[in-house]
Amino acid sequence: MSVHHLRRTAVAVVAGLALPVSLGLLAPMAHAGDMTEPFGPACSTVPKDGAGSFSGMADDPVATAASNNPALSTLVSAVKKAGLVDTLNNAKDITVFAPTNDAFAKIPKADLDKVLNDKAQLTKILTYHVVGEKLAPDQLTKGSFKTMEGSNLTTSGSGESYKVNDSAKVVCGNVKTSNATVYIIDSVLMPTM
């Protein structure tokens, strides 16, 4: 190989590295990981392996994935009662704000029973928890998003601390399923009736 050819190759390699660096395309690895991993205090309760683990949920559509998480059993029952399992499992690129069992327990039992037995109202409430696009954590900083129900919900926060409608806290966020991003929340969201 000639010295001239080696010099040209070296210049091409350096130029190939300089462009991504100058455009900010080679971000630090820790920062990239922060935005792709699930976060929040309730994430520690998710099983480490099996269908209910983060890797197991990533393989399933959202309603099926939720059914494997014991903390979401009330939500799953409500989704089944409303007949929304297929709708959610077949939707493409959605975000679900998923209330925990404890979130449903905050609702007085008589009120909750009434809603669970009113399919139209139950459907309205559940579809208010679904946004028709996958939302990354940084999009939640100060957002307003149209829900499947038809009205908007708002998000605010930063880092690993977010709220929905200034009331529900994200307790485990950025959970991936095969068709959705899930943010597990500590309160049930109520659309204007």
Percentage of residues in helical conformation: 25-40%
Going by helix content, strand content and strand pairing, the class is: alpha+beta
Number of strands: 7
Q: Please, how many domains?
A: 2
The CATH first-level class of the largest domain comes to Mainly Beta
Main β-sheet: number of strands, strand sense, barrel status?
7 strands, mixed
What is the mean pLDDT? 85
How many whole angstroms does the radius of gyration measure?
A: 21 Å
Tally of individual helices: 9
Proportion of β residues? 15-25%
Q: Determine the CATH topology of the largest domain.
A: FAS1 domain
Extract low-pLDDT stretches.
3-34
Order of helices and strands: HHHHHHEHHHEEEEEE
Highlighted features:
2 domains; 7-stranded mixed β-sheet; 193 residues; FAS1 domain; alpha+beta; disordered N terminus; single chain
Please specify the SSE layout and strand pairing.
Elements: H1 3-22, H2 29-34, H3 54-58, H4 62-67, H5 73-82, H6 85-90, E1 94-99, H7 101-105, H8 109-116, H9 119-127, E2 130-131, E3 142-146, E4 152-158, E5 161-164, E6 168-176, E7 180-185
Parallel strand pairs: 1-7
Antiparallel strand pairs: 1-2, 3-4, 4-5, 5-6, 6-7
Helix pairs in contact: 5-9
Q: Would you mind describing this structure in some detail?
A:
This protein has 193 residues and is of the alpha+beta class. The longest helix has 20 residues, at 3-22. It has helices at residues 3-22, 29-34, 54-58, 62-67, 73-82, 85-90, 101-105, 109-116, 119-127; strands at 94-99, 130-131, 142-146, 152-158, 161-164, 168-176, 180-185.
